[in-house]
Design a protein that fits this description.
With 174 residues, the protein is an alpha+beta fold. It has two domains: 110 residues, no CATH class; 34 residues, no CATH class. 38% of the residues lie in helices and 17% in strands. The chain has five helices and five strands, in the order H-H-H-H-H-E-E-E-E-E.
Length: 174
């Protein structure tokens, strides 16, 4: 990150932040649900060392002086300390995956708080047979002239999309 994120050139601050949260933080917190609960004193020391790793990333994201306090950078950038993110990740896994009721900072979380995948959707929407999927009846269009309708979806790494172009209720392209 140091090579691509200097203060005068390189990635913009919001891109550096996205890179941190989607790559670096995910790598650091991998398996947090397993190691976060019932932390020993040795593990607490490791978490403190992890904070120094986060500090380096915060310096690059924020472009601050090396004497800037870590807590100040966390506050300004809105990035939670890693020990809180580890706890948050562990609560999410226990609720969403293990289907257990959990408490985090005085708030109760239950499975219904999270969006669930539809277990009955076995085929990607892009592979659906879409003949007669678009209704071209006159009552379906609001106005004469040029109209474009689009739709798209993404599931399990695959994406599908469709469009239709109408001019005076006559199909031009699909």
């Amino acid at each position: 990150m140091a090579r691509i994120a200097l203060t005068t050139w390189g990635l913009k601050q919001e891109h550096r932040r996205i890179l941190y949260s989607t790559v670096a933080e995910r790598m650091i917190l991998h398996g947090a649900a397993a190691w976060e609960q019932n932390i020993t004193s040795r593990q607490k020391k490791l978490l403190e060392e992890i904070q120094t790793i986060q500090r380096k990333f915060l310096l690059f994201i924020f472009g601050a002086y090396r004497t800037t306090l870590t807590a100040a950078m966390q506050s300004i950038t809105g990035i939670l300390p890693l020990y809180l993110r580890a706890e948050q990740e562990a609560v999410y896994v226990r609720v969403a995956r293990l289907r257990r009721r959990e408490y985090f900072q005085g708030e109760e979380f239950i499975l219904e708080d999270f969006e669930a995948k539809d277990p009955f959707l076995r085929q990607h929407p892009a592979k659906f047979y879409l003949d007669n999927g678009i209704n071209f009846s006159p009552h379906n269009t609001d106005s004469k002239g040029f109209n474009i309708y689009t739709d798209g979806s993404k599931m399990e790494g695959n994406a599908g999309s469709a469009f239709v172009t109408l001019h005076d209720n006559t199909q031009l392209h699909e």
